[in-house]
């Protein structure tokens, strides 16, 4: 009756990896998570909806990758086709499109890569045009929310402007506003085939031991550019930052319970070191207590079942 924090399936976003293959394949680094076909992605969305989960987010894995990630903004791209299939079968569920290029480029970076002497770097401004094209293509396919994750400077303004010009003024933007260059992303990169082939992403993602001022600066820039949601990623090692952003801004706040956090719990549970159910629900409860309105988590289906079954 007096418990302050109430966790429910309505708090979750269920992530789905979708590829162009004909089979559902297991992801070695993320036990219990698979790469889905279009048909099985629809089944995942149906399961989520039946459990009371209000949204899914799609991560695409194309067969073909190139230097500029053309499949990210192709009308028949993997996320675009999966979006249409899910919205046709489960129109009530919100489809969030992850808007980035790293899964689609042959070099694994989140934008246009250029060489500067012996160094490789992402060229920010040309990357904005590609991200904006991707966002419009995803909205054209029926995505309900666009979620830019590339951490390019000015990406929210560029995407908002492009969506408005294309007749999608009603489509909200969920910004990966405070995104750290974290070791916790390792399992995802194998799942999505998005590990950088040269260099790393530290030049455009945030320093993991950076201070609070940087986090507030990044979030404030995205608010000023028109973001409708803010996200902190990862969540578990950055609960203090999550609380900071919650106290400073009034926009809906998303915590991303990332692949490494998921894999740690799975490995410990499989080894018999921890109780998976209790650990997951305690962790998700902590994220909500720290200020998250919504939690993007690979535990979503399991957690929703546990909460339903008491």
From TrEMBL:
It catalyses: 2 5-aminolevulinate = porphobilinogen + 2 H2O + H(+). Pathway: Porphyrin-containing compound metabolism; protoporphyrin-IX biosynthesis; coproporphyrinogen-III from 5-aminolevulinate: step 1/4. Keywords: Heme biosynthesis, Lyase, Porphyrin biosynthesis. Its EC number is 4.2.1.24. InterPro entries: ALAD, ALAD_AS, Aldolase_TIM. It is an enzyme of class 4 (lyase). SUPFAM superfamilies: Aldolase (SSF51569). Signal peptide: none annotated. Pfam families: ALAD (PF00490). Belongs to the ALAD family. Homooctamer. This is Delta-aminolevulinic acid dehydratase. It comes from Deinococcus piscis.
């Amino acid at each position: 009756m007096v418990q302050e924090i109430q966790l429910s399936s309505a708090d979750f976003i269920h992530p789905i990896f979708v590829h162009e293959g004909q089979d559902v394949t297991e992801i070695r680094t993320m036990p219990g998570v698979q790469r889905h076909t279009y048909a099985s992605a629809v089944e995942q969305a149906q399961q989520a909806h039946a459990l009371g989960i209000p949204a899914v987010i799609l991560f695409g894995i194309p067969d073909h990758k190139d230097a500029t990630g053309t499949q990210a903004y192709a009308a028949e791209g993997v996320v675009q086709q999966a979006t249409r299939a899910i919205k046709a079968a489960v129109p009530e569920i919100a489809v969030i499109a992850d808007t980035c290029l790293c899964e689609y480029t042959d070099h694994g970076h989140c934008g246009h890569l250029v060489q500067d002497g012996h160094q490789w770097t992402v060229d920010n401004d040309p990357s904005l045009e590609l991200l904006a094209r991707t966002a419009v293509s995803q909205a054209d396919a029926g995505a309900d929310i666009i979620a830019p994750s590339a951490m390019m400077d000015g990406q929210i303004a560029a995407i908002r402007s492009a969506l408005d010009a294309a007749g999608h003024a009603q489509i909200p933007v969920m910004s990966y506003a405070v995104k750290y260059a974290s070791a916790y992303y390792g399992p995802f990169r194998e799942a999505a085939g998005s590990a950088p082939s040269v260099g790393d992403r530290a030049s455009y993602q945030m320093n993991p031991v950076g201070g609070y001022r940087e986090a507030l600066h990044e979030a404030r820039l995205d608010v000023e550019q028109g973001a409708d949601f803010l996200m902190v990623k990862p969540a578990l090692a950055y609960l203090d930052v999550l609380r900071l952003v919650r106290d400073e801004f009034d926009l809906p706040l998303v915590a991303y319970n990332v692949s490494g956090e998921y894999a740690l719990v799975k490995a410990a549970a499989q080894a018999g070191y921890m109780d998976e159910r209790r650990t997951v629900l305690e962790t998700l409860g902590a994220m909500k207590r720290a200020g998250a309105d919504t939690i993007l988590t690979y535990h979503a289906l399991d957690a929703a079942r546990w909460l339903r079954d008491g």
